[in-house]
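Sample entry (316 residues):
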Amino acid sequence: MRKTNILRLLLVASVLLSIFSSSVFADYIKKKSGKTIKGVIVENYNDRVIISTYKGEIVILKSEIAELSYDTPEQNLIALADMMFDKELFSSAYVYYQKALEINPNSAEANKKIIFLRQYLGNTETVKKISEVSKMQDIENQRYSIAPTNTKDISNDRNALKEKLGISIRVVPTGALVEFVDRQSIADKCGLSENDIIVAVWGKFIGYMDEAQILNLLLKKQIGEILITVEKNIFIESAILHDTNLKSLFTIKEEGLYAGKEMLTATGQIEKNDMIFSINGKSTRYMSEKDFFDEIKNATGNVSFLIRRDLSLFVT
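Predicted structure, serialized as tokens:
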């Protein structure tokens, strides 16, 4: 576990410098222009990726990419599984996620999807046929195809979303802003609030998708639940945090900085395993542990946290 930097993006500060002169692993992008870029892919959206390099973050549209590979076999398997999942080729997706979990049983990305697939495949008895899955070629040729913008009338889908989940949304760059939550609806009971931003569905980032694509993801026939990731703005009185052992409130994982088990008791709002995405408007992505704690120690009034939280919406 890294103690001095919050994310696996510790690579970005000093290790990334060595990527270009040694055999240190890195995510790799080859553009159609022939240019190659090495770094750490920190966000993967529907139509673009953000890669962090020693020169800073670079946004690259997927339409410009000829080849992309991650620094570990696990990540490459998850990327292939995600593509199969999006195409609703669930048997193939299941195989890839399982192979990724064999490499890293703690992979949060693979575990999220495998939960759904075990339910779906088990209920349809398809799981019995998984061993027969053999078509694992010709995948990279389709990998970066971008779904065309949907221009059909989506008013019916908007109404269906209100009826099914009890919410209405508005598209923003990072995902879908929740404008309305019907009290006693599925969304309300599961902890979704107005002004939350849905940033992912089943671990798939929805930033830069159009409204029709987002509605399609949320309205797809699900078995039992829909797993979404939301961003919430939470404000905590600095005095509450000053009176606690800060290191007991937070835990550092490979994916980032998370709230620890004592956080809910201390704050009443931030829950265990909430990802701390920013503090006082400053991203924690490249923030050292010391700088993060100094933000809290030096604060007066409220401390602002932008957190990411997984929510399960149980549907019938």
